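STRUCTURE:
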């Protein structure tokens, strides 16, 4: 682990004003959108007559749009984390950034396709559409989204967790990153047991717990004095 004084000195060399601004905007923006997503998702789930039925429009479309908007903000946060990390831990922060970028690209592609072309008559009226583009298990779109959130997300936060140590705030960020990743990984149980209700465990990780992480990251970035570059 890196001592708090050593880490503060090393961070000052790479955490520029630009990186700090990017981190603050991304973390605060994600937290606001994620909170709106959590409320919308809760309303949608509570309105369902059966847990097996999908959430209907207009709530479904709102959720799709919010996911697409949140994805680049998550990448922005990890870019700032990479800039914040001391030199000896930047290999870990780079791995975290790569996996978060994979998540963002994959989930954005899936949700954008579902939001747009899946509603065209050529797709919506085809017999094979549910197996390709629905969020009913099993489907190709659902499997890709699970790969994004229950595999790439936990890998990203697990690599990011060791970067934070020394202060009480950093220790909380590390613990919550590990918790969010573990819960997201547990969501894979839905695939193994064929019960998508188990995916709700993962949702707690990357919506509920990671929302708190984003708020704490904003506090951490705000407290960190940037270097003179940028």
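SEQUENCE:
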């Amino acid at each position: 682990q890196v001592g708090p004084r050593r880490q503060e000195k090393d961070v000052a060399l790479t955490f520029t004003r630009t990186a700090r601004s990017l981190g603050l905007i991304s973390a605060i923006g994600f937290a606001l959108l994620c909170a709106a997503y959590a409320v919308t998702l809760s309303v949608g789930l509570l309105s369902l007559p059966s847990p097996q039925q999908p959430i209907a429009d207009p709530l479904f479309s709102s959720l799709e749009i919010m996911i697409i908007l949140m994805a680049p903000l998550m990448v922005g946060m990890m870019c700032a984390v990479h800039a914040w990390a001391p030199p000896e831990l930047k290999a870990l922060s780079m791995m975290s950034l790569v996996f978060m970028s994979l998540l963002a690209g994959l989930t954005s592609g899936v949700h954008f396709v579902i939001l747009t072309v899946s509603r065209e008559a050529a797709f919506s009226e085809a017999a094979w559409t549910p197996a390709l583009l629905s969020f009913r298990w099993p489907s190709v779109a659902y499997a890709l989204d699970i790969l994004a959130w229950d595999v790439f997300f936990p890998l990203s936060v697990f690599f990011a967790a060791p970067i934070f140590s020394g202060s009480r705030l950093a220790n909380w960020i590390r613990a919550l990153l590990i918790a969010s990743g573990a819960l997201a990984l547990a969501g894979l149980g839905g695939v193994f047991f064929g019960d998508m209700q188990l995916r709700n465990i993962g949702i707690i990780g990357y919506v509920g717990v990671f929302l708190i992480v984003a708020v704490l990251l904003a506090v951490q970035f705000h407290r960190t004095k940037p270097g003179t570059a940028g």
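REMARK: Residues 78 and 122 are 39 Å apart (CA to CA).
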